Amino acid sequence: MERWALANVCLHWIIASLLIALFFLGDYMVALDYYDPWYQSAPFWHKSFGLLVVVLMLARVAARIYWTRPKRIEPSKFEMVVTRLVHVFFYVAVLAICLSGYLISTADGRPVSFFGLIDVVSLGEFVPNQEDVAGLWHERIVDAVLIVAIIHAVAALKHHFVNRDSVLKRMLWIKS
Questions:
Q1: pLDDT in tens, 26-36
Q2: DSSP secondary structure string, 52-120?
Q3: 171 phi-psi bin (left φ>0, alpha ψ -120 to 50, beta other)
Q4: Least C-beta-crowded within 10 Å: which of 8, 127, 152, 168?
Q5: H or E stretch covering 134
Q6: Residues in Cβ contact with 148 at an 8 Å cutoff, skipping those fewer than 6 apart
Q7: pLDDT at 28
Q8: How far is 129 from 87, CA to CA, in rounded Å?
Q9: Which pLDDT band holds residue 90 (cuts at 50, 70, 90)?
Q10: Which residues contact 67 (CB under 8 A, 6 or more apart)?
Q11: Residue 3: pLDDT over 80
Q12: Contact 103, 126 (CB under 8 A)
């Protein structure tokens, strides 16, 4: 059985795990009041891990280009088109989430700290009410990614339990 390169598999699961954690942290964060001890630190961690996702996504794109993909498991034409659209959607949407997060965080001219190690400079406000506009897009794109991710997971389970092919095993790096 052909498998994805280990780098692709690791990046897939690390990014997926980070996105899930960032979703829950972001959801928790917006409900905090000023006097909550996490009011200042939660955004720091959310932004830092969001920037880490950007770095990992760029590594994932490079890995996807560098290592050949495993041979397709005789998908129908419909499955091939949907698979390609879903993958392109994930790459574009995750980067759009990160970009909108950056635009939210830097609208006031302050840089974004990457784990306190380096600051990512602010490019300032590009549009009026940038923080609100980018915030709306951030939330909407996250919602769309969640919906597509659930469909993606169900499709992987369908391949494993209904089709009984190795699509899921190749992404889990399990030998058949």
A1: 999 999 999 99
A2: HHHHHHHHHHHHHHHSPPPPP----HHHHHHHHHHHHHHHHHHHHHHHHHHHHHHTTS--EEETTTEEE
A3: alpha
A4: 127
A5: helix 130-158
A6: 86, 89, 90, 93
A7: 96
A8: 32
A9: very high
A10: 4, 5, 7, 8
A11: yes
A12: yes
Give the pLDDT confidence score for residue 176 in this predicted structure: 60
pLDDT in tens, 55-77: 999 999 999 999 988 887 777 89
Q: What is the mean pLDDT of the chain?
A: 94
Q: How far is CA 173 from the centre of its chain?
A: 20
CA–CA gap between residue 146 and residue 81 (Å, rounded) = 20
Annotated domain spans of the chain = 6-172
What's the confidence (pLDDT) of residue 48? 99
CB 112 within 8 A of CB 106: yes
Closest by CA to 133, choosing from 103, 112, 109, is 103
Q: How many angstroms separate the Cα of 3 from the Cα of each of 108, 158, 161? A: 46, 18, 18
Here the tokens at position 95 are 């980067």
Tokens of 42: 């939660």
